[in-house]
Amino acid sequence: MSLLWTIIIGFLAGVIAKFIMPGDNEPSGFILTTILGIVGAFVASYLGQALGWYRPGEGAGLIGAVVGAIIVLFVYGLFAGRQRRAI
């Protein structure tokens, strides 16, 4: 059941992050949006644990996952923008 909640929270975080930070070079589709949110949740959990906001083993919530997804989307936009310019 935990995996199902991670996917649901990841999808919601990915959708919210894409609404907050729209752009041309963002991943689209259900699967990529869900992956964006899940990776964002992992990024937020890792950064939160490194900064002492979360205890070891404690994951980020929806807001943390959205912030992590925005960070991942920003980094993705930087790399996707460089690849398009190089062509």
Automatic annotation (TrEMBL):
Report the main location listed first in the record: membrane
Q: Which UniProt keywords apply?
A: Cell membrane, Membrane, Transmembrane, Transmembrane helix
Q: Does the keyword Cell membrane apply?
A: yes
Under Pfam families, the record lists: Transgly_assoc
How does the protein associate with the membrane? Multi-pass membrane protein
Where is it localised?
Answer: Cell membrane
The portions of this protein that span the membrane are 27-47, 59-79
The entry's family comment says: Belongs to the UPF0410 family.
Q: What is this protein called?
A: Membrane protein YeaQ/YmgE (Transglycosylase-associated protein family)
- Organism of origin: Bradyrhizobium yuanmingense
